[in-house]
Amino acid sequence: PADGIRFKRVLLKVSGEALMGQRDYGLDPEVVNRVANEVKAVIELGVQVSLVIGGGNIFRGVKGAASGMERASADYIGMLATVMNALSMQSALERMGVATRVQSAIPMSSVCEPYIRRRAIRHMEKGRVVIFAAGTGNPFFTTDTAAALRASEMGCDALLKGTQVDGVYTADPKKVKDAERYERLGYLEVLSKDLQVMDASAISLARESRIPILVFSIHTPGAFAEVMQGRGKFTIIN
Ligand code: UDP
Prior knowledge:
binds uridine-5'-diphosphate; UMP kinase activity; 8 helices; Carbamate kinase; pyrimidine biosynthesis; 37% helix; nine-stranded mixed beta sheet
């Protein structure tokens, strides 16, 4: 990596909703391009990058189950939604000249590669962005957990969570005016205070794997690259 870069290999988790822009469903191509640009800037710093993209902008299992569908079936639909998002991100990145590979936890051989741990590591070593699709491949999990799992498997130095705001706050900064941003939090503090950063299984897994979670705004231009250099605004959980 370039001078001043604190991480060699990272995984960025972006929720599906972050790619929705002002729409109430699906993808906003402009937002997808902006996020792709953020990733490109970090690749150019010499950092190895992998991505997990959620699917909540298209389908969420819990909601499907609430309307009468069997939970597992609804979750599979949710996982398929993440594949659509992964392919959209792949195409945005490749248009910018960034080499990518999509690996799906649910094999879909005519669409993308199946998830193969060692192969994913190899892609990253070659400077390719690996986009992990279909979550963990299991119902009853989330893409947050998938992100912590893949980051652990890849031996990432950090798990980045790109959110709508620039870190974790004492209260929702969009609603509470004097909400304050935490500079640092412990994993257990996040769990005991029930702070809505990532779900509890993701936090626990990151803790066990000793991977710091850095929460930052995915919508602030250049923020991802800044965080990689220890600059800008973010909350670190470690
Ligand atoms: N999902 C799943 N197993 C996984 C990952 C995801 O069953 O390992 C399903 C689940 O139904 C979830 C949906 O896929 O609601 C979309 O993922 P998520 O809600 O995590 O997306 P995000 O909120 O990040 O957009």
